């Protein structure tokens, strides 16, 4: 069971792969991780179950990636239905997993060849579960429906997996297996994939750079606020599970590195590598014969020392005065024909490495880092080990390792081990994910590697040397042998050794060790290299330097360095950026709409019309859309319109129906009656993308609902028979009537009279006249009658007629008590005389309606017994109808804690105003 | 060199305005895709595109809002002016009517954006010299009188398209440099992105267009 990353186009998301076995059958289960690290079973959702049978192929995508320790392993899994690429972390867990799969495939082949085909029935059950859970999206396995967050996709996690229909022993066994597996997964789950290299030069293969972007994207703060307030829970789940497209930076680097050859030119630079074990001596010798013995000054120096300081202080506190001393010594002895700048110095106890570059080249050196690895006492101390400096020169990466490996003739395996330890532990940080030594273009390894001459006695060796038979001695060189059998320094090259063994001499002389030990001479001090376009020019020892029991070694290399052609670099860079811009634009949310214009014809009062718009996510990413407000408006649409849903989330390929509902009610009728057009433009906004304008238009058939009293009293015929223009004119200028109307206006609107008359004749003795709502259907009949002025046919229950009356009064364009008198009426509500005074001021037609309705109320109260009506009830009801606050004053300007009380107070005042006229006879 | 920052340090919001059919969407397409969109449908809404450019060594991300030109949408598209750092006002050199409407577009642009918004006048379709209806000189004079930057361009050939977008950005950047554009002002149309130490920024969020103009 391993964690891996599913690679899909530009999107990476983490997956959990588990090899599940049930008896003989094996299958690969792939889980999506809703959370990382995965802690409980709810964090994962089964995405695919792939039986390991004939069509199952699992391959490591590119062998070259394996050569890079630490890099992720791309694994392609193919079956008849699926073809997916995963990146699995490099390590033993993955290799174990991989071998298990190989074994399972082998097992299957063996079984089938023995005529015992495996059924995989148990797998099928899981596959069915997956299909069920995925049917909301497209069923394309690993299609974008994988974005389906667990919360919407009805997750089938381990526990929730529906139990098989028949619980036979196999199934039980399977469940057991599974539980174990899950536990083991959780144990190991916290161990995340190893870090990855950030630099473009280190990026190898397409998966590399974008993976990096994947890992870092979560840590990055968002530049623009996504408007998290509006993000639904669904989206948040999505965000944590999937990070689309990853990070631009990483992708740019990746693409640039892929096209490196297009903008780099190879130019040779000369590198000097030197190493010397100075046996704890102080720098009392001129180093010129070692460091400046060539005619041409090198461009870069890397000089390594071992046993620089053998004192206890150096060992315990890593503090040494020798450092400064030797640095000065080296600096003085650098080639006199060039000026050098120290790039980096690193020291661990006695191991010191200094890198210099010509002054004029220093500015091309970037990303310098140094590290140390101790492999000495307890495998950790710095008496042995290595120090390294890495840098980028132009566009080529360099690393220099100076190491002092374990001593003693017989300890060559320990030396191999030290080498391996240094390789795996030497990690250059500060570049996002740590860099291994192997992730560099040019690698130079120098130092006292301490490999000796085996199988020959000291005298034999010396004998060969006297006869100038170095080649024969080299055959017995341990390093030579270990490299040949690939036990150490794999991939490294060492030039031919044409110099005498550098160890061990009597200090101050050129004569071999004369101590009792009589050590055999050996090439302890070596320089190796690895990388393309490195050419070794010289490899030599320097006998002239005598203070140590070792002789210094040096080597000169020509390295073809990738230098950047600024012009071409710019061109490629711009090209890459443009490509990304294009991609980014392609990844913007996209939807297609079935229609952009909607026409609602002959809209009538309180008669709902609907049309639907289908919104299809035609893009590649999930989309959230929302109807947004226009400038200076507080709702996204007009009051007579509604969109449902007004905000929605759509997965790629999915479709959502949006209903547009047009319904004119008393709130919106009057303005439409007064000539406002049934027109609106809605802005459908895609979160993070473009906006669509949706035009809604239509015509409204005016109704007496929502008309003004002034207009109504001048209409002798049905409202629909009046030309619209005239109607608008009447509504817009209620006072100016004489010119238009040839006849006398009515005292009150005929509709009011009709309804009241009907109620008067049929309903005075009906109980709870205004309390019970009429049946909705009847209500429609009623107002159709009102529209058409066919009072004779008023049908339906008396209650719905009563309701129609209330609705009619409520919908009047201006209430019975005109807005300007509203406050006055409230102010004098407990004084009948003042009330009468106010009333006498309101327009005649309004007063008439008021008088007519209050008279009707008084009439109803005559039959209190039967009608079960009460003065106060009626007064409250009519008060609300007659007295409406002026537009814009609906909301009371009082503190919230007193709002309720204020509302009640106003309601009481309204009621008591009307009450005056219900209990008292009133006539002008 | 290669290790330099790839990320942009500013986001500039642009709007493109002008009569229907003057080629606003084609200009955007030409700028973002380097291609001419031959049969471009009328924009019913607001298109959105991005591109990263470089001005004085600074990477700048342009967020471009291409508005519908139809008169009936005029009231709605006004929502989008707010917070624009640059406004590209486009007319068609072969249709005088589109030029005549410029003053009304300019009024909107001036009223609905902040005083530092850079307004760039583009006479599009410069490739159709034979059908020219508005002379360069006349438009240049209009631009000068109103303090606008001006170029004739062709979304078809790509001529001057890049320049118009880049010139606008340069001017905005200059305004930032000399302090006349206050980045902290809510409606400057510019967002400054402080360096994040070379760490990249997630694409899925940084393309989020600012929407404040339409929500109030």
UniProtKB/TrEMBL annotation, chain B:
InterPro entries (UniProt xref): P-loop_NTPase (IPR027417), Rab14 (IPR030702), Rab_GTPases_membrane_traffic (IPR050209), Small_GTP-bd (IPR005225), Small_GTPase (IPR001806)
Protein location: Early endosome membrane; Golgi apparatus, trans-Golgi network membrane
SUPFAM superfamilies: P-loop containing nucleoside triphosphate hydrolases
Keywords for the protein's UniProt record, in alphabetical order: Endosome, GTP-binding, Hydrolase, Lipoprotein, Membrane, Methylation, Nucleotide-binding, Prenylation
EC code: 3.6.5.2
Reaction(s) catalysed by this chain's protein: GTP + H2O = GDP + phosphate + H(+)
Membrane topology: Lipid-anchor
Similarity comment: family membership: Belongs to the small GTPase superfamily. Rab family.
Domain of life per record: Eukaryota
Top-level enzyme category: hydrolase
Residues covered by region (Disordered): 187-216
Keyword Hydrolase assigned: yes
Polar residues: bias regions: 202-216
Protein name from the UniProt record: Ras-related protein Rab-14
């Amino acid at each position: 069971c391993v964690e891996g990353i599913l690679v899909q186009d530009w999107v990476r998301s983490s997956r959990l792969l588990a090899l599940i076995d049930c008896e003989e059958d094996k299958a690969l289960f792939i889980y999506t991780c809703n959370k990382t690290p995965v802690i409980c079973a709810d964090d994962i959702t089964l995405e695919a179950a792939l039986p390991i049978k004939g069509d199952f192929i699992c391959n490591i995508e590119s062998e070259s990636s394996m050569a890079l320790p630490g890099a992720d392993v791309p694994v392609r899994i193919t079956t008849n239905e699926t073809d997916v690429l995963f990146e699995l972390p490099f390590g033993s867990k993955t290799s174990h997993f991989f071998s298990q799969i190989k074994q399972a495939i082998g097992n299957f082949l063996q079984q089938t060849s023995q005529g015992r085909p495996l059924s995989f029935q148990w797998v099928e059950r899981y596959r069915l579960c997956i299909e069920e859970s995925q049917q909301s999206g497209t069923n394309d396995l690993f299609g974008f429906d994988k974005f389906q967050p667990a919360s919407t996709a009805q997750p089938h996690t381990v526990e929730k997996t529906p139990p098989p229909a028949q619980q036979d022993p196999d199934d039980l066994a399977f469940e057991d297996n599974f539980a174990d597996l899950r536990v083991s997964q959780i144990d190991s789950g916290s161990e995340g994939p190893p870090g990855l290299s950030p630099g473009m030069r280190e990026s190898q293969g397409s998966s590399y750079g974008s993976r990096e972007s994947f890992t870092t994207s979560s840590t990055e703060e968002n530049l623009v606020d996504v408007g998290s307030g509006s993000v639904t829970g669904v989206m948040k789940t999505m965000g944590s599970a999937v990070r689309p497209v990853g990070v631009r930076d990483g992708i740019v680097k990746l693409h640039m590195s892929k096209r490196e050859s297009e903008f780099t030119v190879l130019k040779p630079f000369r590198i000097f590598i030197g190493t010397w074990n100075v046996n704890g001596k102080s720098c009392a010798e001129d180093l010129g014969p070692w460091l400046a013995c060539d005619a041409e000054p090198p461009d870069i120096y890397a000089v390594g020392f071992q046993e620089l300081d053998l004192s206890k202080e150096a060992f315990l506190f890593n503090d040494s005065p020798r450092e400064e001393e030797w640095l000065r010594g080296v600096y003085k002895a650098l080639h006199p024909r060039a000026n050098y700048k120290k790039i980096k110095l690193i020291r661990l106890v006695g191991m010191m490495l200094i890198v210099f570059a010509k002054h004029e080249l220093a500015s091309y050196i970037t990303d310098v880092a140094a590290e140390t690895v101790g492999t000495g006492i307890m495998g950790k101390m710095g008496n042995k080990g290595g120090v390294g400096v890495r840098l980028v020169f132009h566009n080529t990466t360099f690393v220099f390792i100076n190491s002092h490996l374990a001593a003693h003739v017989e300890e060559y395996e320990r030396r191999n081990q030290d080498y391996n330890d240094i390789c795996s532990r030497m990690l250059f940080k500060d570049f996002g994910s740590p860099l291994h030594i192997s992730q560099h273009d040019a690698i130079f390894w120098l130092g006292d590697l301490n490999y000796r001459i085996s199988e020959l006695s000291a005298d034999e060796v010396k004998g060969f040397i006297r006869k100038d038979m170095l080649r024969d001695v080299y055959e017995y060189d341990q390093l030579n042998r270990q490299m040949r059998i690939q036990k150490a320094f794999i991939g490294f090259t060492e030039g031919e050794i044409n110099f005498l063994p550098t160890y061990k001499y009597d200090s101050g002389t050129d004569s071999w060790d004369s101590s009792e030990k009589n050590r055999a001479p050996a090439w302890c001090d070596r320089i190796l290299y690895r990388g393309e376009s490195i050419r070794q020019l010289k490899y030599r020892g320097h006998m002239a330097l005598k203070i140590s029991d070792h002789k210094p070694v040096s080597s000169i290399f020509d390295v073809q360095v990738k230098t950047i052609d600024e012009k071409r670099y710019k061109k490629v860079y711009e090209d890459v950026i443009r490509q990304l811009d294009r991609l980014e634009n392609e990844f913007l949310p996209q939807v297609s709409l079935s229609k952009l214009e909607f026409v609602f014809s002959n809209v009538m009062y309180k008669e709902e019309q609907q049309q639907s718009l289908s919104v299809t996510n035609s893009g590649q990413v999930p989309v959230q859309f929302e109807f947004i407000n226009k400038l200076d408006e507080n709702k996204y649409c007009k009051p007579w319109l509604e969109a449902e849903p007004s905000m929605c989330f759509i997965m790629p390929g999915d479709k959502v129906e949006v209903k547009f509902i047009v319904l004119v009610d008393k709130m919106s009728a009057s303005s439409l009656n007064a000539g406002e057009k049934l027109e609106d433009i809605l802005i459908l906004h895609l979160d993070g993308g473009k906006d669509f304008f949706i035009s809604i238009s239509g015509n409204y058939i005016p109704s007496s609902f929502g008309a003004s009293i002034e207009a109504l009293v001048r209409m002798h015929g049905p409202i629909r028979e009046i030309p619209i223009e005239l109607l608008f004119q009447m509504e817009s200028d209620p006072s100016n009537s004489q010119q238009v109307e040839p006849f006398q206006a009515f005292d009150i609107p005929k509709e009011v009279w009709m309804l009241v008359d009907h109620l008067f004749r049929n309903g005075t003795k009906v109980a709870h006249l205004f309390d019970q709502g009429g049946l909705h259907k009847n209500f429609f009949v009623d107002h159709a009658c009102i529209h058409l002025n066919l009072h004779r046919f008023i049908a339906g229950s008396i209650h719905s007629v009563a309701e129609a009356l209330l609705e009619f009064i409520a919908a009047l364009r201006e209430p019975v008590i005109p807005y300007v008198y509203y406050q006055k009426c409230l102010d004098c509500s407990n004084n009948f005389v003042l009330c009468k005074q106010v009333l006498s001021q309101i327009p005649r037609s309004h007063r008439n309606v008021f008088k007519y309705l209050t008279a009707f109320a008084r009439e109803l109260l005559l039959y209190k017994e039967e009608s079960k009506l009460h003065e106060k009830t009626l007064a409250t009801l009519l008060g609300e109808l007659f007295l409406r606050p002026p537009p814009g004053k609906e909301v009371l300007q009082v503190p919230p804690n007193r709002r309720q009380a204020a509302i009640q107070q106003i309601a009481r005042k309204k009621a008591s105003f009307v009450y005056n006229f219900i209990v008292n006879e009133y006539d002008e | 060199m290669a290790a330099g920052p790839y990320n942009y340090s500013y986001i500039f919001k642009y709007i493109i305005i002008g009569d229907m059919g003057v080629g606003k969407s084609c200009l955007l397409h030409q700028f973002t895709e380097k291609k001419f969109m031959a049969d471009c449908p009328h924009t019913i809404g607001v298109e959105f595109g991005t591109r990263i450019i470089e001005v004085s060594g600074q990477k700048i991300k342009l967020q471009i809002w291409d508005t519908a030109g139809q008169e009936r949408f005029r009231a709605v598209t006004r929502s989008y002016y707010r917070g624009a750092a640059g406004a590209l006002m486009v007319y068609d050199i072969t249709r005088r009517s589109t030029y005549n409407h410029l003053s009304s577009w300019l009024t909107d642009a001036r009223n609905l954006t902040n005083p530092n918004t850079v307004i760039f006048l583009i006479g599009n379709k410069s490739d159709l010299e034979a059908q020219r209806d508005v002379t360069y000189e006349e438009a240049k004079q209009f631009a000068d009188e109103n303090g606008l930057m001006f170029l004739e361009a062709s979304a078809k050939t790509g001529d001057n398209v890049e320049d118009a977008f880049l010139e606008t950005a340069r001017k905005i950047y200059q305004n930032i440099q000399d302090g006349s554009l206050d980045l902290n002002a809510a409606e400057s149309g510019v967002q400054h992105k402080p360096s994040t130490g070379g760490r990249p920024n997630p694409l899925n969020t940084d393309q989020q267009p600012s929407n404040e103009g339409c929500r109030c």
